[in-house]
Amino acid sequence: MDQPSRSAGTVRPGGRTARVRAAVMEATQDELVEHGFHGLTMDQVAARAGVGKTTVYRRWGSRAGLVTDLMTELANQSTPHADTGGVEADLRANALSVLGAINDGRLGATFQAVIAAATSDEQAAGALRAFYLRRIAEWANVVDLAVKRGELPAGTDGAEVIRAISAPLYYRLVVTREPVTEKDAERSVARTLAAARAGAFVVEEL
Predict the structure, then answer these.
(1) Residue 82 in contact with residue 142, Cβ under 8 Å?
(2) Is 199 helix (H, G, I), strand (E, B) or coil?
(3) What Pfam families does the database record attribute to this sequence (predicted)?
């Protein structure tokens, strides 16, 4: 959902296994950016990473396995939620982080490739869903903090607020294929925050 702190592949040290995984994740992302999911091949990833094909097939099994691990790595690298002390600034930070990610040449292309793949491949869809659910849960914390401070009504569903922030941005990116600007991000925050303050995201307890 929001921008990882660095590209996949620039990962932590930790021996040969970690180096192999880092190289393969970097190569997977490069191949996705250049060729899309359907142009992604295990052999090309292995060649690009400088790793034996047997290693790649044994560890990842399929291109969907590669993409699943890549999305896990991007989620691991994503920055934690903001905590500015005010809900408006926190939600603005979320929107700008989403904006930065989807407008980044490398990350944006990665997300678009996986989103496209998710329409026809269930494993790719699962990887994408897991990534976004994790990031939504992370940023939902800013809404919970706002409720505790009395800035939003009790019972406000933080996950739904975060979804409402990013949904218009992804609609422009994926559906209408329009530029996504800072003005769009600001407008999404203003509308979502107004709705949240009015109680539109309150979930009544059964």
Answers:
(1) yes
(2) coil
(3) TetR_C_11, TetR_N
What's the pTM? 0.83
Q: What is the tens place of the pLDDT at every residue in 140-194?
A: 999 999 999 999 999 999 999 999 999 999 999 989 999 999 999 999 999 999 9
Whether the Cβ atoms of residue 135 and residue 78 lie closer than 8 Å to each other: yes
The one-letter code for the residue type at 22 is A
Q: Please name each of the domains of the chain with its CATH number.
A: 15-74 (1.10.10.60), 80-197 (1.10.357.10)
Determine contact, residues 90/146, Cβ cutoff 8 Å.
Answer: yes
Within 8 A by CB and 6+ apart from 182, the residues are 96, 99
SS3 145: helix
Q: How far apart are CA 22 and CA 96, in angstroms?
A: 27
DSSP code string of 68-114: HHHHHHHHHHBPPPP--SSHHHHHHHHHHHHHHHHHSHHHHHHHHHH
Residue with tokens 């990962």: 11
Chain centroid to CA 93: 15
Amino acid at 34: E
